[in-house]
């Protein structure tokens, strides 16, 4: 996997590389495996400096016209690395779109991730909740930070699609549910893993079904995940989802899953995030049969359905159309190969790889002068974007020039 140089660029200032094993010394000549960047921003809403973690798609710099959904991960000090890596893996296998991942570490978890609660609320040992967690209950202020400061800054700095996902675990899952039921327009999709719905005498269990039934268009998506052994929380979630099934919210696509096995509250987030992303983007991957046949009209129809679902234009990935073109080329179906590669350039005009691939098909068809134009365009784009594949494109262009030099003059 090619490491994106954009990982090394800051969002608001000083950037520190975040690697899998930051404490491991890197020997001379070795290259660290980079997951993302660390940075921070000053929040006027919260009155403090907030640490952040940023992961950009591996192709971010090589495809400078592409825009991406943004996934916000709470409790990022624990979950950023595994979620960002998972997103990259699922996108590379074409099960989900490439995404920008924004990790939001905690500074005061009780304060930020918990909704308001009754002054008379008590914990199991009888003490007042306000005494046990004196700073708790300010989820609405934290949401203002996310929606009024962080998200606008991310969307101004990076190439984003109008699609936000919020992923939270435990108190983070509680926060996600609170946002969905009170300010659903804040995000397009929510993944709530083992959400602490017992909070404030299980208020959300009583109020969420009605709130979700009242959701207005456009529709939202919710994935709930819990350990079947996580009593009594699992009983609360079963009660909530039973009511949801009765009400059938018209503008909510949702699913609730339980895990039975050797995992627990601490390890559940990895599995829950994976299942949640697969649910949110179910059907994203082009069926193998369609990939093999490479029918462009059917491919376009597949992506039209996805576009309608997410609310922004979704087009075939450059890598996908490239592979379709080469399947046709290997089968000596030159018109179909050229059509696929030309469509790739229409959708991804700044991809050096797309131009170089079209040149392969044009050269096979004997259209050498046209092929040379695309070889040279691939080289120019690679130079512009500092593409590490530049030597390959240059080699192809030089070889074609040499071939043309041996052709008889007309």
Automatic annotation (TrEMBL):
Superkingdom of the organism of origin: Bacteria
Coiled coil: none
TPR repeat segments: 318-351
Signal sequence range: 1-27
Pfam families per UniProt: Esterase
Alphabetized UniProt keyword annotations: Hydrolase, Signal, TPR repeat
Gene Ontology terms for molecular function: hydrolase activity
Family stated for the protein in its record: Belongs to the esterase D family.
Protein name as annotated: Alpha/beta hydrolase
